[in-house]
Design brief:
32% of the residues lie in helices and 25% in strands. The protein is built from 16 helices and 25 strands. The longest helix has 18 residues. The radius of gyration is 23 Å and the shape is globular. Keywords: Ligase. This is Long-chain fatty acid--CoA ligase. GO terms for molecular function: acid-thiol ligase activity. Pfam families: AMP-binding.
Length: 513
């Protein structure tokens, strides 16, 4: 029987091959492959001295730093499972989430210690802070850095990944070592320089694994800022960037785009929204033909990709989410339970080796999301005659009005065509009882003011009277975002309700900040 080799084995082999070469850039300092591998081995021995063995779960409130990655790989090297915890804003919800996960150890850093619940229900360890007896980094310094044999088995739980939680409490999808190793083993060029400025709790950790396993370099930044992102691309000669959709449009519209040398870029991948074609075209005009649209989810893995070569050959493809990836099965289930034919819209269901094996300690949610090997994404879309996938939006965001399926992009496209509108996002309204289907945030260009009445007329002209009547709208200087960088639906709903109330009271358009 062939011995199982996990992704950690492959990664450590690659670090050994590049022992003298930088594989990480953190706080503008290089970490070589040899130094990083030594850190992993030391942390593995330190974790073992804390009692971490196969079957345990080590969870972290982790900043974007080399130590957090080393601890994750060290944990998996011991055959234990890992999770980067989401920084849920509500202390009560954060405590409930940690309690549900039931980690054996909970690790916090100087930057994240404030996130630890008062009653965590787990053993606490720290890096860079806390009492000396609980300092994992201090204990690691005195350990040997000789190789540690990987104890992971194919079917052992390896990694738990948080969803964005933009529609409520985050879900926690789980994957075995075999499943995770398959997911992060896609080919990756050795000259790749991946900028990682998104929280490790989400897709960033997949990009880190994939880049390091391919022999590339990961450049870690503490968080996202448009000016810092553009500066880092120039200074670090970044080839690949991942941005959540609102971040992409904030970055491309930043004035520094004109003065930064972005010639090293090969791909700016964006996720987290349907991204209307009018905005994608503007991104390409400003950043060059480097835009890569990826459709997927923490539960479903990567489903389809629209690459620069695709849309350069056929500009009409900017309306789509690209070709379905090899090895991924997609079916569209109509409202009556039958499967859609070409061009017919319905609920998107996905099956592949990258699909999660369920949710961790969330059986009710898992039963609703995973059925017979298929992941029910919760999104609405269709497949065209060339096998390109079109995503209309989340099921809650899509409505059939006057016999036509209307998704957020249809509304957003009409608004972004107006000269005063820089960006717009439409999300499902919580006030359906009042006739509102969508709450819409509209962002003006700097120095301009959005006329909400004119915006409503644009929606009516493009989508019809019935759609316009189902829209509640507010002008905002910036779309409110979650920790992951996705739109904050609750906040948009709040401002739209407030704007409508003001307009009713004053009979004038209202603007929010």
């Amino acid at each position: 029987m062939e011995t199982f080799r996990s992704y950690v084995d492959v990664l450590l082999d690659r670090l050994d091959a590049h022992a003298e070469r930088a594989v990480l850039r953190y706080l503008d300092e290089d970490v070589t492959g040899g130094a990083f591998a030594a850190s992993i081995y030391r942390y593995a021995r330190a974790l073992a001295s804390f009692g971490v063995t196969r079957g345990a779960l080590v969870a972290m409130f982790a900043p974007n730093c080399a130590d957090a990655l080393a601890i994750r790989y060290a944990t998996n090297l011991l055959g234990a499972a890992t999770m980067f915890l989401p920084a849920i804003a509500s202390a009560e919800q954060r405590a409930a989430f940690v309690a549900r996960m039931q980690p054996m150890w909970l690790i916090a850093f100087e930057e994240t210690k404030h996130l630890v619940p008062a009653l965590a229900g787990a053993r606490l360890a720290y890096v860079g802070t806390g009492p000396a007896r609980l300092r994992l980094d201090i204990r690691a310094r005195v350990q040997h850095d000789l190789p540690v044999q990987c104890r992971a088995r194919a079917d052992d739980l390896a990694v738990i990944v948080s969803s964005g939680g933009s529609t409520g409490t985050p879900k926690a999808s789980r994957r075995s070592f075999a499943a995770w190793s398959t997911m992060v083993s896609a080919p990756s060029p050795e000259d790749r320089r991946q900028l990682v400025n998104g929280a490790l709790a989400y897709l960033s950790q997949v990009l880190v694994d994939n880049t390091l396993m391919g022999g590339g370099v990961v450049v870690l930044k503490p968080g996202y800022d448009p000016a810092d992102t553009l500066a880092a691309i120039e200074a670090e000669r970044i080839t690949d960037v991942l941005l959540v959709e609102p971040q992409l449009f904030e970055t491309m519209d930043h004035p520094d785009v004109a003065r930064r040398n972005l010639s090293s870029l090969r791909s700016i991948a964006h996720i987290g929204g349907s991204a209307p074609a009018i905005l994608r075209r503007r991104a390409i005009a400003r950043l060059g033909p480097v835009l890569t649209h990826m459709y997927g989810a923490s539960e479903a893995g990567l489903v389809s990709v629209l690459t620069p070569s695709n849309y350069l050959a056929n500009p009409d493809l900017l309306e789509s989410a690209g070709r379905i990836r090899p090895g991924v099965d997609v079916r569209i289930r109509r409202a009556n339970g039958t499967f859609a034919r070409e061009g017919q819209h319905g609920a998107i269901e996905v099956r592949s080796k990258a699909v999660a094996q369920g949710y961790y300690r969330q059986p009710i949610e898992a039963a609703q999301k995973f059925r017979d090997g298929w992941c029910l994404t919760g999104d609405i879309g269709f497949i065209d005659e060339t096998m390109n996938l079109h995503v209309l939006g989340r099921a809650a965001d899509v409505a059939v009005i006057d016999g036509v399926a209307i998704g957020p992009a249809r509304i957003e496209s009409a608004l972004c065509a107006l000269p005063d509108v820089r960006y717009a996002r439409a999300v499902a309204s919580s006030d359906a009882a009042r006739g509102y289907v969508w709450d819409v945030a509209v962002v003006p260009w700097t120095g301009r003011r959005v006329d909400v009445a004119r915006c409503m007329r644009a929606v009516e002209s493009a989508c019809g009277v019935s759609v316009a009547r189902a829209v509640r709208m507010a002008s905002m200087q910036r779309v409110p975002l979650t920790e992951q960088g996705k739109v904050n639906r609750v906040a948009i709903g709040f401002w739209c309700r407030k704007a409508v109330n003001v307009r009713v009271e004053t009979d004038e358009p209202a603007h929010s900040t």
